[in-house]
Amino acid sequence: MAMSLNQIGALSGTPIATDSGHTAGGESTTAAVSASAVWRSPPANIRVSVQKQGAEMDRLSPSPPMSPVKGGMRADLSVACQALMEAPTEEVVVREHRSGGLGGKQGKGVPVYVMMPLDSVTMGNGVNRRKAMNASLQALKSAGVEGIMMDVWWGLVEREAPGEYNWGGYAELLEMAKKHGLKVQAVMSFHQCGGNVGDSCTIPLPKWVLEEINNDPDLAYTDQWGRRNNEYLSLGCDTIPCLKGRTPIQCYSDYMRAFKDKFSHLLGDTIVEIQVGMGPAGELRYPSYPEKDGVWRFPGIGAFQCYDKYMLSSLKAAAESYGKPEWGSTGPTDAGEYNNWPEDTNFFKKESGGWNSEYGDFFLSWYSQMLLDHGERILSSATSIFKNLGVKISVKVAGIHWHYGTRSHAPELTAGYYNTRFRDGYLPIAKMLGRHGAVFNFTCIEMRDHEQPQDAQCSPEKLVQQVAMATREAGVELAGENALPRYDEFAHEQILNAASLSENDEMCAFTYLRMNPDLFHPENWRKFVGFVKKMKEGRDVDKCREEVEREAEHFVHMTEPLVQEAAVALMH
């Protein structure tokens, strides 16, 4: 997620108990690799002044880079809230209510989904806090929520051995969602849980994948100081048979195919969307701003992640093809460190910065194209596997809004988005998604410019506007998420404004972060139910805002007996 450390609130989560279990299945596919660079004409951008911090680096760009040195409450809602903070394992049966929830006809307004807790399934492949799940899902349905989003962790399902899949907890959770009439956005989470802002538990990559990384550390993303990142496999090895004879792309494909085979009876009915993880935090990006161990702090510019041998091999080939072989041994070495600001560095500074040179354009084009190629490979597989099954395919893109007002947009560049004052970095992503009919899912929808530190030139609103324009031009559906857990009406209003961009141009869905005890606190719940109602109403010219709010208050009271029934079961 793209969010600041000083903004994030504590998320609930229960430590995951460890035990094992698995079943068998899976088969292989292949994919082609492309490392070509692309060049695009520069569009106009926003002109904003930059605050300079610290001393500049010694060497100036755009001279060829030097080699880097490596090394170193009400009764009903309080019960749901309490249940979420506990971890009982006994099963409870709750009678299904068929009385329906909020909202009008399907296709009107913007449907709201709610993101499930990260630890909804335990390391023992069971449902975590089963009673709380039943009570909470029933409350969400009665409030008019369309469905839920859940992470389907690679590190849980295929944990023990390659090709051995244990879907136990997910099978139960999906059946619970079906029973309550909730749709599901299933996230193919090929990344590690833990180490990002808001991560409340730790779920590593599969054991056998970590073994291969231990044998070949270059399978992990690497910065210029030799620091390895195990959140997600380096895209440089996408087509290398480095995982027990399979390529990473084949592993991702086999996993998605096994999911399809296991849950084919729910696809297109309960499961309506497959979001394909493509990087850290499930986002299509490089791990350029890792929070773990204090490596990165908001609003640092981050660092390029292209120093594993597979990425460097591709860079070398691209430089030779471009006719500048001397540019192929390393990335920029005057781009500062994780917590620098743009004007601290010679590569990102506004005047004569290396980013705006021939060398900078070569490197940034290669770096961003590698990310696009990675997305293309996985999407080609995903769309083939889930073709004609009635599900949408989506991809999440990070809302990197800090230093957006500067010329270089340094944090976006290190993350792999070649977006600057002179170049639109989101249109190529939107066009790539459009080639596969995928949804562009974007974060930071709830943020307002004036809430962010202005000395860091944060501009989430302008960033959202740029992404909306890119998706409109590419003819791609846009969906949204909030980057931070927010329960206030200012955030809700900002989401409402962003979701209904024009009379005939609304987001296709919005996913609310996240189901936790705070959501069920009476005042937060009242605001949330009103927010869901307003989202589903959309731009209904026949209803004023006050009328919608009165109807929402009515449904808040309707929620009470439904959750109280779950509360009775929870007490026994």
Structure write-up:
The chain is 33% helix and 10% strand. With 572 residues, the protein is α/β, with parallel strands linked by helices. The strands form four sheets. An eight-stranded parallel barrel has the order 2-3-5-8-9-10-11-14, surrounded by five helices. Strand 2, helix 2 and strand 3 form a beta-alpha-beta unit. Belongs to the glycosyl hydrolase 14 family. It catalyses: Hydrolysis of (1->4)-alpha-D-glucosidic linkages in polysaccharides so as to remove successive maltose units from the non-reducing ends of the chains. The active site is at 283 (proton donor), 481 (proton acceptor). It is an enzyme of class 3 (hydrolase).
Oligomeric grouping of the chains:
single chain
Question: How are the strands of the largest sheet arranged?
Answer: 2-3-5-8-9-10-11-14
Number of helices: 14
Structure classification: alpha/beta
Estimate percent helicity: 25-40%
Sheet of most strands:
8 strands, parallel, barrel
Number of DSSP-assigned strands: 14
User: Helices and strands, in N-to-C order?
Assistant: EHEHEHEHEHEEHEHHEHHEHEHEEEHH
Tell me the β content. Answer: 5-15%
Low-confidence stretches: 1-76, 87-107, 563-572
- Provide the residue-averaged pLDDT: 82
Rg is 23 Å
Question: What best-fitting shape do the alpha-carbon axes yield?
Answer: globular
Q: Distance between termini?
A: 39 Å
Task: Please write out the topology.
Layout lengths: L22 E2 L50 H11 L26 E4 L14 H13 L4 E7 H4 L6 E2 L2 H12 L3 E7 L17 H9 L4 E3 L5 E6 L14 H15 L8 E6 L32 H14 L35 H28 L6 E6 L12 H6 L11 H8 L4 E4 L17 H15 L3 E4 L7 H11 E3 L2 E2 L2 E4 L9 H16 L7 H26 L2
Parallel strand pairs: 2-3, 2-14, 3-5, 5-8, 8-9, 9-10, 10-11, 11-14
Antiparallel strand pairs: 1-4, 6-7, 12-13
Catalytic activity: Hydrolysis of (1->4)-alpha-D-glucosidic linkages in polysaccharides so as to remove successive maltose units from the non-reducing ends of the chains
Pfam families: Glyco_hydro_14
GO molecular function: beta-amylase activity
